[in-house]
Amino acid sequence: MYEPQPAYKFTFGLWTVGNVGRDPFGEPVRRALSPVEIVHLLADVGAWGVNLHDNDLVPIDASPAERDQLVRTFKAALAETGLVVPMATTNLFSDPAFKDGAFTSNDPAVRAYALQKTMRAMDLGAELGATTYVFWGGREGAESDASKDPVEALKRFREALNFLCDYSNDQGYGYRFALEAKPNEPRGDIYLPTTGAMLGFIATLDHPEMVGVNPEVAHETMAGLNFVHAVAQALDAGKLFHIDLNDQNSGRYDQDFRFGAHNYKQSFFLVKLLEDQQYAGPRHFDAHAYRSEDSAGVRDFARGCMRSYMILAAKARQFNADPEIQQLLAELNAPQPELTPLQGRYSRERAQALKAHTFDRQALGQRGLGYERLDQLVFELLMGVR
Q1: 126-130 CB contacts, 8 Å cutoff, 24+ apart
Q2: pLDDT band at residue 1, thresholds of 50, 70 and 90?
Q3: Which end of the chain, N or C, is less surrounded by CB atoms within 10 Å?
Q4: In what order do the strands lie in the sheet with 176-180?
Q5: Contact, 315 vs 267, CB < 8 A?
Q6: CB within 8 Å of 221: residues ≥ 6 apart
Q7: pTM (2 decimals)?
Q8: Residue 136: which of 97, 187, 170, 83 has the closest Cα?
Q9: Domain residue spans in the chain?
Q10: CB-CB neighbours of 67 under 10 Å
Q11: Which DSSP symbol is given to 358?
């Protein structure tokens, strides 16, 4: 029951299982896998799809002929394995040209080149069947606020997204754009650092209906925020177009651990939220294996991400069926018929009745809510003793 199922749409990026274990203090520990090898690896472990940055598949300096050959070979691997490409994105952070940002760079030539590179990457994604396009502004930020006007930077970012929405519409690609927030790293501060900031920004675009969010566990957790609440806000707004699953310790660098590797409880409530709300999009694992692992460990990592999700999905069903937990929740949320006339949408009569009602303030403050018991039951459920 914990094997990956196509209905869950589990995906990985070429850059995730293809991670060679390099970090700022150490050289690679695993050999680089070709995109075709990665496709076959993911098919072997039961994934549904594979996602990519443009340069994960096509090196930035590849000739047109080399580009076409790489794409043909990749498409053949997809056809052979049955994997799909539901999402694509552009690498606007690795090349030195983007050292001060892409869409928000002070240099107009860099901004124009970023648009050109993104359009070409959108062409590639559409050719491979992608319907969601993610924007992570890893270099869109500053170390010194003397270097950029943040209001002007947001205007530049807005202008770029408006341009690319129009390009997608003009080409008939039908993309949904998903913006990915992160507070810092690799910049000292990244513009639009949280999912909530992204949601506010989307409302200012020319085509807000085309643009949603791609929240990532590690990015919100780095800042000490509750990721489940960020996802709930996106769901409530109808803007959860994609999601990046991994794990992270609060206050650390971007660790990108295997999903469920550290914060079991947060991972559980995240899975429960997605399952209860019947989230139908891909569940993308933007994570990588520990640097300690060889190629067999990478397979263990990929299987572990999906298996952890399936285990937590089963735990969510158990939570929803547990009579003691559900009784507690029913008691906590029990309606009070005498208050029904005071609740609901505003009317002058309702406002007057509410103002005239007498509440027993002391009784409200003295009522025990039973959250200790409820939380213990969740712990016992997760530990397998219920």
Answers
A1: 126/171, 126/173, 126/175, 127/71, 128/52, 128/71, 128/74, 128/75, 128/78, 128/85, 128/88, 129/84, 129/85, 129/86, 130/51, 130/85, 130/86, 130/87, 130/88, 130/175
A2: confident
A3: N
A4: 211-213, 176-180, 132-136, 87-89, 49-53, 10-13, 283-285, 244-245
A5: no
A6: 227, 248, 249, 250, 263, 266
A7: 0.97
A8: 187
A9: 6-321, 323-382
A10: 16
A11: P
* 3-state DSSP assignment of residue 212: strand
pLDDT-derived band of residue 292, with 50, 70 and 90 as boundaries? very high
Q: Which of the following is catalytic: 53, 219, 242, 284?
A: 53
Total residue count of the chain as it appears in this document = 386
Residue 367 burial by CB count (10 A; 0-12/13-18/19+): exposed, middle or buried?
exposed
Triad 298, 302, 308: Cα angle to 5°: 135
How many Å apart are CA 204 and CA 153, to the nearest integer?
14
Please give the biggest Cα pair distance in the chain: 78
Question: CATH fold of 6-321, please?
Answer: TIM Barrel (3.20.20)
Give the pair of three-digit tokens for residue 335: 């309606």
- Please report the pLDDT score of residue 261 as a whole number: 97
Known catalytic residue: 68?
A: no
Average pLDDT over residues 245-272: 97
CB atoms within 10 A of CB 328: 17
Q: If DSSP codes are grouped into helix, strand and coil, which group holds residue 324?
A: helix
Q: Annotate 109-129 with b (16+ C-beta within 10 A) or e (fewer).
A: ebbebbbebbbebbebbbebe
Among 317, 321, 340, 337, which Cα is nearest to 329's? 321
Reference 245, options 306, 293, 204, 195; nearest CA is 306
pLDDT for the residue numbered 275: 98
* Nearest Cα residue to 134 out of 125, 143, 142: 125
Helix (H) or strand (E) holding 283: strand 283-285
Neighbours of 172 (CB within 10 A): 7
Tokens of 63: 């000739």
CA angle (21 as vertex; 20, 24 as ends), nearest 5? 120
Q: Residue 364 and residue 344: Cα distance in Å, rounded?
A: 21
Q: Is 229 a catalytic residue?
A: no
**Residue tagged 């472990």 (tokens):** 45
d(CA 159, CA 229): 29
Annotated catalytic residue within 23, 40, 54, 56: 56
